[in-house]
Design goal:
This protein is of the alpha+beta class. It has one domain (9-269). It contains seven helices and 13 strands. The protein has helices spanning 34-45, 50-54, 98-111, 154-166, 179-192, 195-198, 250-269; strands at 9-13, 24-30, 60-61, 72-75, 79-84, 87-93, 129-133, 148-152, 175-176, 205-208, 214-217, 224-226, 240-245. β10 and β11 form a beta hairpin. α3 packs across α7 (250-269), α4 (154-166) crosses α7 and α5 packs antiparallel against α7. The longest helix has 20 residues, at 250-269.
Length: 271
């Protein structure tokens, strides 16, 4: 990914007590692209092994409001659509029903990988993060079923370098993650984990290196999402690859993506 046109923003919305709400992963696009997004999702569904992954062959509910104005979308209607001005916010609520949420995010990520029709010119913004996820019932070369990766832009990398420079290094010479990122992962994990796994909420964390690499970590066998040293092909103006290690379960994937979303959100808010 080299300065690709802006397609979407990735964000994390924390849970609230009053009124009580669940944490959300949010993808924001231009409202005018909803029709094309829906068309793409229907085409992707034709090649998605839903029954093998979810255990039943259920539909993907459209991202377009129906005749009655209902806005739930995704598998099991796990998401809902809100609009604000010219923006459409595709919100996936994080609950213990993680399979439907992971597969819904997977389809959205696939559908957003290439520019929408007519959206080909670079403007003031480039794509901040290009997310790629896997949801496979078969696993991969290392038994991964939920491998996740993609690219982050130069602006994100520069923001990470600034965070590392502002704080004292304490994790193997690196700087702990900004607290809002760690908190987002912990909130996501707590909302999704079973009683047996919730005790591991505090395992969520990570660090930022002075060269702008990040590592997001959650409970598991060295389970992380990171810019690794061997991804260092970055030069000024280019995006950089990130990937994962031992990312086996949907709850791990959605937790780490929540941290990534909050990271991107903070970088945008910081200008």
């Amino acid at each position: 990914m080299y300065n690709t046109v802006h397609q979407y923003d990735l964000s994390f919305v924390p849970p609230q007590r009053r009124p009580k709400t669940k944490p959300q992963l949010v993808i924001t696009i231009d409202k005018k692209h909803l029709m094309e997004l829906d068309w793409r999702l229907r085409r992707i569904m034709e090649h998605t092994e839903v029954e093998a992954y979810l255990g039943n062959d259920e539909p993907f509910h459209s991202v377009l409001p129906d005749l009655f104005g209902k806005t739930e979308f995704g598998f099991g209607k796990c998401g809902f659509l809100t609009t604000e001005g010219e923006e459409a916010h595709l919100r996936i609520e994080l609950t213990p029903d993680v399979g439907r949420r992971a597969l819904t995010l997977n389809l959205l990520a696939q559908a957003l990988i290439v520019p929408f029709e007519g959206n080909t010119k670079l403007k003031n913004r480039v794509q901040q993060v290009d997310l790629e996820t896997r949801c496979s019932p078969y696993g991969g070369a290392h038994g991964y079923e939920h491998a996740t990766g993609g690219y982050v832009s130069e602006s994100v990398r520069e923001w990470l370098k600034k965070q590392a420079g502002q704080h004292t290094r304490s994790i193997h010479g690196h700087t702990p993650l900004p607290q809002p990122i760690t908190k987002a992962m912990q909130q996501a994990w707590s909302a999704m984990a079973s009683d047996r796994w919730e005790m591991w909420t505090k395992e969520c964390g990570g660090f930022v290196a002075e060269d702008g690499r990040f590592s997001l970590v959650c409970f598991g066998n060295a389970c992380d999402l990171a810019i690794y040293p061997d991804h260092e092909t970055w030069s000024r103006g280019e995006s950089v690859r990130f990937g994962c290690h031992n990312l086996d379960h949907a709850v791990q994937q959605l937790t780490l993506v929540s941290g990534l979303a909050r990271l991107c959100q903070l970088a945008r808010e910081d200008g």
